[in-house]
Amino acid sequence: MKLERLWGSSPFKSAYDAVMIGGGIHGLATAYFLAKEHGMKNVAVLERRYVGFGGSGRNTAIVRANQRSQGNVKLYDEGLKLWPELIRDLDFNMMFFNCGNLNTFHSEAAMGAARLAVSTAQFCGVKSELLDRKQCKELIPILNIEDNITYPVFGGMYHQPGGIVRHDAVTWGLAKGAVSYGAHIHQKTEVTGIDVEDGKVAGVQTSRGTIKSPRVLICCGGYGALMAQKVGIKLPLHPLTIQAMVTQPLKPVLHHVISSGAYHVYANQTLKGEIATGAHMDPWPNYTTNTTPHYFKHQAEALSELLPCLRGVKFMRHWAGLADMTPDMAPIMHGNDPVKGLYMDVGWGYFGFKSGPVAGKYLAKYIVDAKRPKMLEPFSLRRFEQFRPTGETAGAFSYGPWN
Amino acid sequence: MTRLPSAPTEKIDRSKTVAFKWQGIPMNGLKGDSVASALFANGVRIVSRSLKYHRPRGLYSLDGESGNTMVNIEGECNVRAENTPLREGMNVLPQNTLGRVENDLFGILDRFDGFMPAGFYYRKFHKPPFIWPLALKGIRRMAGTGKVDLAKEYDSDRYEEIYLNGEIAVLGGGPAGLSAALAAADQGLRVVLFEARPELGGFYDWRTREYAPGQPLFERAGELVEKVKARDNIRLFTHTFVNNLAGDNIVTGFQVGNDDDSFEQRYLQLRPKAVVVATGCIERPLIFENNERPGVMQANCALRLAQTYGLLPGSAAVFSVGDDLGLESAVDLANRGLKVLAVADARKDGHDPALVTALKSKEIPFLPGWAASEARGGKTVDGAVLGNLDSNETRRFACDLLVASAGLTPVTGSLSTAQAKFAFDQHTGFFLPSQLPPRIHAGGRLLGYIEPAAIEASGALAGLRAAKDAGVDVAMDDAEATLSNLPGPAKGCSVVHGPGIGMGRKSFVCFDEDGTYKLAKQSVEQGFDVSELAKRFGVFGLGPSQGGIPGHNLPLVLAELRGDGMDGLFSTTVRSPLVPTLIATLAGPNHDIFKRTPMNDVQEQAGAIFRRAGVWKRARYFSNDLTSSDEIEAIRNDVGIIDVSTLGKFRLFGPDALKALQRVYISDMSRIPDGKLRYSAMLNHDGMIVDDGVVTRDGDGAYYLTASTGRAGGTIEWIRYHTRYDGWNFHMVNLTDTLAAVNLAGPRSREVLFRVTDADLSNEAFPYMGYRKISLTGDIPALALRVGFVGELSYELHFPASYGQAVWELLMEAGKEFNIRPFGLEAQFVLRLEKGHLIIGQESEQRVNLMDLGLGFLWDRKDKASKKIGAPALAFSEEQTDRFKLTGFRMDDPGRTPGDGSIVYEGEEIVGFVCTSRFSKTLEQSIGMAVVRDDLVKEGGRLHIFQYDANNPIRYTATVAPTPFYDREGLRLRS
Amino acid sequence: MSYTITCPICGKRDLYEFRFGNEDRGPAPDQEGLTPRTYSDAVQMHEAVDGPQKEWWYHRDGCGVWFTVWRNTLTGRETSESGEIS
User: Fold this and answer.
1) CA torsion angle for A121, A126, A130, A136 (degrees, to 10)?
2) What is d(CA B868, CA B111) in angstroms, rounded to the nearest whole number?
3) Which among A394, B191, B259, B777 is placed 20 to 30 Å from B435, CA to CA?
4) What is the rounded CA–CA span in Å between residue B767 and residue A373?
5) Quick check: B299 and B321 in contact, CB under 8 A?
6) Could you give the CA distance from residue B332 to residue A332 in angstroms, rounded to a whole number?
7) What is the three-class DSSP state of A140?
8) Cβ of B119: how many Cβ atoms within 10 Å?
């Protein structure tokens, strides 16, 4: 029995009602929602390589709604609630492991920050609890709560609704879904330019020819700023290389996502049994996606203190992707300014995966209405020149998002 | 199992027996055995069960390319038995089995592969929704191979790290690597050579073929090794696995320790000027039905069992090879007593005539153009089927050993991590480097050379090229000529799989993930038809040994399934680590590095409880009373002393010193009166406060300034950054560690200080915000600053750090009659809160700028010429509404104090948060500071606070109150 | 990728010894006649360059000097304005 292609190949047209630059989950989700919820089916996703080759296929697939600011919590909470709907509608198992997320905190001041996040979440109707160190250990028995480590655990924030998803499943499921509703996907198609006439977007230039379209969405992950610059738009972004690694597969030993700001480390156990871990970003802009031995070692140091039983486990694969970071660790979703019909979905840093489907949902609305939806009000590009950051991160900005 | 008669190539010591256990059964091996060879010697053929289908697996190769022989040793899981030397008393257990590994109850899964086509899990288990959590439980339990032993300790003292020096790194200690090392060392350079196996010599090591008349290859290996060992500028690391070659030639890896080493493993790192990669080849697996059955093994493996370990790999064998090395292994094994029933060679021609003759002379049937199509046998091999690659002809044999190989695969992993580009070479059948990164050279077998002299010459040439990159003027012509006169790279085996593969249902491309030919086909059908996609969808090469087995074959198989031919073949990306690396090894000794002040010990003796503050350890409490009420009381009523040595302290001087100050500080720094402190803040471009501190004049054109502990390390960087285009003439000296500091605070602080100095401390002579140079006990020079962070009369003393402990003790002694108490950060925290003083990072955050914090008065708005950092942002946001402002508040119920971080809300909206809040004993009220939306910050305004800790939602109300809460006129400060 | 850059005082050192101080976009603008938009363009927005870029770096774990180098953001290597340095 011959199996069918997961999604059919699409004929290359020279005109579409909307074009998504970037074949990751943001672009695929937007196309899916445009076609499904707004009846705008004559749309195309243009991808330079293969769908999911960028951040969508490289992340460690953690989903959560435990952000610091109300605007972000609302968006991610809706994002979390979308998974069961998507799984049903796309008829694709995204392998959502609802294991919950524990963030550990390592000082009195950090516990204050934890309380802020927990209170914000609960106020918005999202489950989140503040735990003391003993409760953290009860939740994650392999956690080290001794005092004799660099950053002893003071307590934690436990967000039960979060967990992990299978990133490839989301990408492929959305691709399948978008195409089934009529959208086109063009892989191995590079966008080389964006055409603007009289302050309005006219279409794009690609390696396979020109495509006319009155609506263009830039959603190509770490390459977003380069794409925007093709029409002279500068953005407050730095594309940083973010690294992650996995251990050899193990029988179940870690049953939640654990994350520590002080150690710059998070870890979870995938359904294949690997411990996926990461969180380091090289603090300088790069388009290289190269890993560094520096962080390989650093990661091991952190894990060996926080989860000591992992000392006897081996790392087997290490990779990197791009995180385009804004000063306030919140994305930029902005359209029709300065170019009518041009929409930008950038600045997702290391949190673009968890928001993919919900971002797509609201971007679709934004594109169809040509008006900013209420949910996206905090994410305007102009918030920076107005000195009104989202408050998703606390620190004063120096040269870059790392200091 | 008895061992073969001694051979000069063997590495075992027959006089030393080593006892161990397998599945609880006592067994014996010999010193020099690996765990794998010891198991084999004891008749163990099934060592593990595969990930998905739980198929029996055993010895296939001898360098750990697959997870077949991963075992659990002494509680450590996923240990590669092939690369682990046997040690006395080892307790070895199999993994991933239910019951004994020979009778794994999950073995039945092997029959259900039909229900698990490529990508099946994306289409199953999600409807109805309740099924998924149950399925998930099962999947998690079945996934993974190793089990973590929670009780096993890894002593960080036994995991070392070493940072090496040397101009040339050579990866690989075979003939090419040894030759490269000698060539580079001859140029006077320091060479570091890394070899994964415990011994040097590479693939010469077990071969009896002649290198030169009367000199078998293994002796030639010995000769090269002796030469290398004799050089004192070649440093050798054996049993050392390089796991990455990365940017600018950084080489990292780890060495496994011997019994007499001080380490279990140690991490190594080297950044040489140039690198030679001579990592040789492994064998390319032949794909056919049941090609991973125990009893199927690679040619190299079979031969080394005999030559290195003295073990006959089977009793009756069939060979299916793809190159001359395969033929040689058949001949050599036959010579050692193996009954060889037939030798198939996938090549139709090009065989070494001497080897063909040797086979014929032993009456071993030779079948050119034939290859294995099936291994038969339930759990281990009991038969083999060979087939003609061009016709349907087959022949069946009863045997317990099927030696199968499709020729060689170059080990190019380190070139791949170094970002070399590769192209498929038709002649060798290898993915060869088409573009090497700067200062990296390749030599030896991995380029396709087979002939020993050519391998060595290729290595030597690479060594010379590396020497040239390291700056030695070396003539290459002779070496290049030598190499070009020797036989070039050999023709490789082009066969992708055995004949008659059909569905390839149990023909394995990837052993670790049970990735079969059938799954590859299904991946291609579903659109995942290139390596990078098929890897993830079908699942190949993502298992515990990563790409070892499928790496070369996957692109070839996919190309065949696509029908492409060999055009546009791309090698699969290889990622670091090249060898799975233990986290304990990477973590190494992992020393906790932090700084302590000179008064650390005296504070500890006084009962201080320390906390990490940036890179420092600082005292936060001086008792188990976490409200520090005794300390607070002491400061308000008598006197307290706190160690503030960690504060940033800087001297800034030069003709343009003032210009630099005017740039980074938001205030007018130009008219600081003599002997006075100016308090100001440094902002970023968004007008947010990055640091605050005091500045004072310190002689002609010189200034002395302080910074907060957290920012101290960045102060010089910051000031130099924001003046980098101006070309100003000024200098900075960081005195943070040079000067210790204490703050003496409380109504009786003057009296205490008076005991130890002759300086005029009267309020007229030394007022609030004054700055004086004084001396303590006539000997100790100190800067005295009257700052008022905690809201009492206080003197901050900065003095040379070597006097730290002495000054502390001096003041404690002098303060005895005044009831002096040491205090820590918590007490300071509460007191400054009562004064409404902000702490950077506590009350400041991204949404509040200098004006929002109520410090707008610091801003010298007239000065546009200095281009003060942050000034435009303040100007632009000044008129804005709907901004957050910092405000004080008082709880309506004094007994209820919200936690730091509780949110402030209005209706459904979050309109701010509590920065700090404490119960103040002094005021007998609960007070705090919060960042709140401006329309709600009016005197007497009501604030609604919400806190949620551990399932406990609490709501409070508070009233906006002006700060300071305590001593509003500042009388106590100025007394 | 664990590359190196060349400090003018200390020589070639591992990149992790340094702090990145943004691309070279000239001094902060004069404060007369600024608008929020021109100010934001000058100090908040970045040039996106996928190739050699002139950048400011600070030798944090060394001599403490701020200096510029050309670095290729596509390869991570220090470079000259037009090509790669070996």
Assistant:
1) -130
2) 75
3) B191
4) 59
5) yes
6) 68
7) coil
8) 24
Report the relative pairing of strands B581-582 and A314-325 from DSSP bridges.
antiparallel
**What is the per-residue DSSP string for C1-49?**
---EEEETTTEEEEGGGSEEEEE---SPPPSTT--HHHHHHHHT-B---
* Helical residues (DSSP H) of A181-292, grouped into ranges: 224-229
Residue with tokens 């670091």: B576
Subunits adjacent to chain C (3 or more Cβ pairs under 8 Å): A, B
Helix (H) or strand (E) holding B662: helix B657-664
User: What does DSSP assign to residue B317?
Assistant: E
- Strands B250-256, B265-270: pairing kind: antiparallel
Task: List beta partners, residue A43.
Answer: A18
First to last CA, chain A: 57
CA dihedral sign, ordered C66, C72, C77, C78: negative
* CB-side neighbour CA atoms (13 Å) of B558: 31
* Residue A44, beta-bridge partner list: A19, A184
Which tokens is B60 given? 């296939």
DSSP B235: E
Contact A391/B522, CB-based, under 8 Å?
Answer: no
Q: Which of A26, A1, A7, A96 is nearest to A363 (CA)?
A: A26
By Cβ distance, the residue of A236, A292, A385 closest to C37 is A385
Tell me chain C's radius of gyration from C-alpha atoms.
15
pLDDT over threshold 70, residue C44: yes
Tell me if chain B has a CB within 8 Å of the CB of A139: no
B326 phi, psi to nearest 5 deg: -65, -45
Residue B624 has pLDDT above 80, yes or no: yes
B544 and A248 in contact by Cβ < 8 A?
A: yes
Q: Which residue on chain B is closest to C27 by alpha carbon?
A: B725
Residue of A297, A306, A328 best to disrupt the B interface, most CBs of B under 10 A: A297
Between β-strands B616-621 and B678-683, what pairing exists: parallel, antiparallel or unpaired? unpaired
Predicted TM-score (pTM) of this structure: 0.94
Asked if the peptide bond before residue A378 counts as cis, ω within 30 degrees of 0, the response is no
Q: Do A299 and B586 touch (CB under 8 A)?
A: yes
DSSP per-residue codes, B341-400: EEEEES-SS---HHHHHHHHHTT--EEETEEEEEEE-SSS--EEEEEESSSS-EEEEE-S
Q: What is the DSSP letter of B436?
A: P
DSSP state of B537: I
Across the range B926-941, mean pLDDT stands at 95
Q: In what order do the strands lie in the sheet with B780-785?
A: B771-776, B780-785, B794-800, B739-745, B640-643, B821-822
Cβ count within 10 A of residue A37: 13
Q: At B603, is the secondary structure helix, strand, or coil?
A: helix
Res A340 pLDDT > 60: yes
- Which residues on adjacent β-strands are paired with residue A319? A244
The residue behind tokens 């579409």 is: A16
Q: Which of B650, B652, B691, B655 is nearest to B783 (CA)?
A: B650
How distant is the alpha carbon of residue B892 from its chain centre?
51
Is the pLDDT at A1 greater than 60? The verdict is no
E strand residue ranges, B165-315? 168-171, 191-194, 210-212, 215-216, 234-237, 240-246, 250-256, 265-270, 274-277, 281-283, 296-297
Chain B partners within 8 Å of C21 (Cβ): 721
The number of beta carbons lying within 10 Å of the beta carbon of residue A142 is 17
CA distance A118 to B951: 10
Q: Give how far Cα B403 sits from Cα of B291, B297, B298, B317, Å.
A: 10, 5, 5, 7
Q: Quote the CA–CA distance of B193 and B196 in Å, as a whole number.
A: 10
Model confidence pLDDT, tens digit, residues A270-314: 999 999 999 789 999 999 889 999 999 999 999 999 999 999 999
- Asked if this assembly's ipTM is beyond 0.90, the reply is yes
The three-state secondary structure class of A365 is: helix
